[in-house]
Amino acid sequence: MRTFKYWMFVPTALVILLASSSLVRSETIAIRPRLQQADPLVFSGTSGGSQNSNDCGMIATTPNHVIQIDEQIDYLRFTVEGGGQPTLLIEGPNSRTCVPGLPGEHKVEDSGLWKPGRYSISIGEAAGGQHSYKLSITRQR
């Protein structure tokens, strides 16, 4: 009877582990230039993490957000506001861009032309802590 209890524990623990790891995955956000979407798109989360990206501070092991762009967008602006000293790391099909936070500033931005592709967005923390943030994505200049 005792052995049976332990064998029930192993599958239960495995299910909990698999379910919790799926919560870490980022949802892919499609941005299409010709469709009507809310503008700005606004997301929130927690900055920082356990991985040191050197130029972009501490980031999570998985991106905070994943953006899919199907057609070229002539102008798009990403703005991160939050506590601490946030950083913005964008890794795309052919590029890696880090926008470091300035000491005393709680906001970072990156804008420009965006080519089609899948972009991983990581919100880092230059000072190494973790803070709440708000990410806004807009087509407005």
List the helices and strands and how they pair.
Layout: H1 2-24, E1 28-31, E2 41-46, E3 51-52, E4 58-59, E5 65-69, E6 73-82, E7 86-91, E8 96-99, E9 107-114, E10 117-125, E11 132-138
Parallel strand pairs: 1-5
Antiparallel strand pairs: 2-11, 3-4, 5-10, 6-9, 6-11, 7-8, 7-10
What does the model show?
- It is built from one helix and eleven strands, in the order αβββββββββββ.
- The strands form three sheets. Strands 1-5-10-7-8 form a five-stranded mixed beta sheet, with no helix packed on it. The protein has a four-stranded antiparallel beta sheet with strand order 2-11-6-9, with no helix packed on it. A two-stranded antiparallel ribbon has the order 3-4.
- The longest helix is centred in the first third of the chain and has 23 residues, at 2-24.
- It has one domain (26-138): Sandwich (Jelly Rolls), CATH 2.60.120.380.
- It is an alpha+beta fold and 141 residues long.
- 16% of the residues lie in helices and 45% in strands.
- It is globular and about 40 Å long.
Task: Looking at this protein, list some descriptive labels.
single chain, Jelly Rolls, four-stranded antiparallel sheet, five-stranded mixed sheet
Provide a quick synopsis of the model.
The chain is an alpha+beta fold and 141 residues long. The protein contains 1 helix and 11 strands; from the N terminus they run αβββββββββββ.
Q: What is the helical fraction, as a range of percent?
A: 10-25%
DSSP summary: helix tally? 1
| Sequence of strands across the biggest β-sheet | 1-5-10-7-8
Per DSSP E runs of 2 or more residues, the count of β-strands stands at 11
Uncertain spans? 4-24
Indicate the structural class. alpha+beta
Biggest sheet architecture = 5 strands, mixed
Amino-to-carboxy terminus distance: 68 Å
In angstroms, what is the radius of gyration? 18 Å
What's the CATH class label? Mainly Beta
